[in-house]
UniProtKB/TrEMBL annotation:
Species of origin: Actinomyces radicidentis
Protein name as catalogued: Peptidase M20 domain-containing protein 2
Region (Disordered): 21-44
Family: Belongs to the peptidase M20A family.
Any GO BP annotation: folic acid catabolic process
Peptidase M20 dimerisation domain mapped to chain residues: 216-310
SUPFAM superfamilies associated with the record: Bacterial exopeptidase dimerisation domain, Zn-dependent exopeptidases
Upper lineage: Bacteria, Bacillati, Actinomycetota, Actinomycetes, Actinomycetales
């Protein structure tokens, strides 16, 4: 029987920092200029938006049914069979054709409405529905799924009632495995964005925010290879791969003092050796390197790679740095005119999105929508699914909120918001030109697939 000689418990983190950040947010909100919204002469006119609102209202029950169904059947990345079937069933109920298993991804679905002309203006509404292991929909993807599908069906209803209402094409594309992989990059490499001029999607949160910082992420694996030997009788004949991993983690810890405030480097030991009495021959680290800008991300990755090489040199071990082509997430680049369309839509729903810069950047994370936004104009606004700002993403409290009445309100309001943005963009050529001009002014399309080549 194993004897426990010393039993202790983890300390409870102090929530003062969260309370202080919330206070800071309110102070900034009081002095910040409100986010820009489209004027009445831009986008869809008031009468068309009223018809859109009526279509969303008629779909309310089905939007909530979908949100609850996905919430009650959480599935991790690439296993979202129930969620995809629920989306497919709803599309089928409305007579919308779709394809499943598209682009070689078993749980990816695609549908389109509007013009059949290959050159028609085309906007994609992306849809996530994967959950987190252990805690379910603690990132609110059930609400995001309902937003996207509800928006697509509302636009389909407008077009069905008055053919030609949509002077272009709308695509619904489900994108699995946002939490566990960079599936949008895989889909983009397979052709998901071919012929697409803009892409939009929401993200669940504790507040309504037009845009929040999303960090770029480089996912890396470092494998150190040493020489095994008896750890007691001949340790001097070994080359310790665990020492290399330890030095690498120590070097990363020291590096953190000299990096930008928004940079993040975090790592775990995937393989630390087999038994204590053999000098470890192989160890493996899994690392995430994050930064706010493409340029600073590339620089930080180079510095981390230098740390890994230094650890190998100090221990006389070999090193492989493994970075799959599809594994990196780019920072999200928001589009100004599309953001203004979103802001107008949410004010029409009684929401008041915060402008960029009011929320602390300290809480920034990453998403593979960044890879989309670097290729085509896009937005990824945050929609509040909780009753207050204290609930954090990836918690059981967020899971509960995503299935509650506040999550329901966000499911319907977000569906109207995405549909309104798509409609504004489709019916207003001047807005489409402004969207493209803003995208080009912020750097234009990035060759994401080749970004790390040099």
């Amino acid at each position: 029987m194993t004897q426990i000689r010393d039993l202790s418990q983890p300390t409870t983190p102090d929530d003062a920092v969260q309370r202080l950040m919330a206070q800071e947010t309110e102070e900034r909100r009081a002095t910040a200029a409100p986010p820009e919204a489209l004027g009445e002469s831009q986008g869809a006119d008031a009468a068309l938006r009223e018809r859109l609102g009526a279509a969303v209202a008629a779909l309310r029950g089905e939007i909530l049914e979908l949100s609850h169904d996905v919430h009650d059947h959480p599935e991790v990345g690439y296993t979202e069979h129930h969620a995809m079937a629920a989306v497919a069933s709803l599309l089928e109920r409305h007579g919308v054709a779709f394809e499943q298993g598209v682009y070689g991804m078993e749980t990816a679905l695609r549908a389109q409405i509007g013009s059949a002309d290959a050159g028609a203006p085309t906007i994609a509404i992306l849809c996530e529905y994967d959950a987190l292991p252990g805690i379910g929909h603690g990132c609110g993807h059930n609400v995001m799924c309902a937003n996207s599908v509800g928006a697509f069906l509302a636009l389909a209803e407008l077009e069905a009632a008055a053919p030609g209402t949509l002077p272009g094409r709308v695509i619904l594309q489900t994108t699995p495995a946002e939490e566990s992989d960079t599936a949008k990059e895989r889909l983009a490499l397979a052709g998901m964005l071919d012929g697409v001029d803009a892409a939009i999607q929401t993200h669940s949160y504790a507040r309504d925010v037009v845009h929040q910082t999303w960090l770029g992420v480089r996912r890396m694996r470092a494998v150190f290879t040493g020489v095994p030997s008896h750890a007691s009788s001949q340790p001097f004949m070994g080359r310790n791969a665990l020492d290399a991993a330890t030095l690498a983690l120590t070097g990363i810890g020291l590096l953190r003092q000299q990096i930008l405030p928004m940079d993040r480097v975090h790592a775990i030991v995937v393989d630390g050796g087999q038994v204590p009495n053999i000098i470890p021959e192989r160890t493996e680290l899994s690392l995430f390197v994050r930064s706010k800008h493409l340029e600073t991300l590339k620089d930080l990755v180079g510095r981390v790679e230098d740390v890994l090489r230094g650890a190998a040199l100090m221990t006389g071990t070999g090193l492989e740095i493994l970075t799959p082509d599809y594994s990196s997430e780019m920072p999200v680049r928001p589009n100004g005119p599309l953001s203004a369309a979103w802001t107008r839509s949410q004010r029409e729903r009684g929401r008041d999105p915060l402008p960029f810069g009011v929320l602390s950047e300290t809480v920034a994370a990453g998403t593979d929508f960044g890879n989309v936004s670097q290729r085509v104009p896009g937005i990824h606004p945050l929609i509040g699914v909780t009753s207050g700002p204290a609930v954090a993403l990836h918690t059981r409290e967020m899971t509960a909120a995503a299935g509650s009445g506040t999550g329901d309100a966000a499911a319907v309001d977000g569906a109207y918001g995405l549909a309104a943005v798509a409609l504004d963009w489709l019916v207003d050529p001047a807005l489409r030109e402004a969207v493209r001009a803003d995208f080009e002014a912020s750097g234009g399309a990035v060759d994401v697939a080749r970004f790390w080549d040099n």
